[in-house]
Write a structure and sequence with these properties.
Structural class: alpha+beta
Number of strands: 22
Strand order of the largest sheet: 2-3-4-11-6-9-12
Largest sheet: 7 strands, antiparallel
Helix content: 10-25%
Distance between the termini: 16 Å
Shape: globular
Strand content: 25-35%
Amino acid sequence: MPQANEADNLRVNALITEPRPPIEWSVASPLDLERLRNRWAETEACPVVCASREDGIDQSWLGFDIRTYLRGEQSAGRLSVHSIVIAPGAGLPPHYHDDRETFLIVVEGTPEIGVGSLVETAARFTLAYAPPRTRFSIRNTSDAPVWVNLVYQSAGLERAFADAHELWAHKKENDFTPYRAVLSRYGFRFDDALLENDSLTNSEMPPVEFEFSGEGDLEALREKLFERRAVPRLVHTPESEVALDGPDPGFRKRVLGGDESGGTAMLNFVSRIPPAPKHYQPTEEEMFFILDGQLAMTCGTADVILERGALAFAPRNCTHAFGPPAPDIDHKFMTMNTPGGHEHAMAALRAKAKAGLTDQEFRAFSAAGGFIIQ
């Protein structure tokens, strides 16, 4: 069972005010980036809130208006997060990474997205997931800007975008070739050859056979999930699918689970659900991507109202809570938890709660599933 530790919780909450300037580091090859990630891993991740795109670092270049929300210095090298507005005609050609996962969430627009051998026109609320050694591409083939959130696991590609931004700022180079050379230093592999994972996009993955019953099960469940092969995903959530009317208007959809990601992550699309109380997770990170409306958020020691396009990053042991600022305010957002697995625990908890649990039993079962309710 993940152990509650008040001292760890208080220490991590306070880190939200700690500056984390970039470490001076030169990257000439992916090996240099690996060494940098090892340096980042020596630190503890800190909470981060970006209430709007203006809070991000400008790393724009050649048709990409990029605001970087989360860097390796802040995530202990585990994650980087970027808000990107793609101009009409711009995009990234097919490429892959040997050791990095790519997650993309469409906030606005209709990009053409390739995941593995599947290429489709997406719309807002679409999720694309490319595990390592899976081809990925995105292009804005429309006449209007496309807005996406891009997550890399692990961190480091914010350095590639920073170098591309410098090239753009000084030379205003309009040919993709020099930017391709920059990205290649950081592990982007531009290769049209088919990869083994490419044919697996959206393949059926039955849930792992596991009955979650309590203490010690989360660790055992994750061991089973880590043994599974990660399968690429391109998941659409049409607006007509989002339930907003009736006596129970809340909507929750799992768009990626630990079963499909080999235990790497779980993502939920959420709309108008009841408020979640203050809690923290000792063994996993959680991120919140606001896609519509407003969300009242506690993250560490910060209490903020998040608007469309905002991000909140709650690392391990960080207090967080969320809900609508007022009963009549709509909200649509995605959560990303890494590693995955707690979705099995929460499903078991909901089933037990329907049968009746005391408050003490509810808290104990939640803790077994990785959630320490405060």
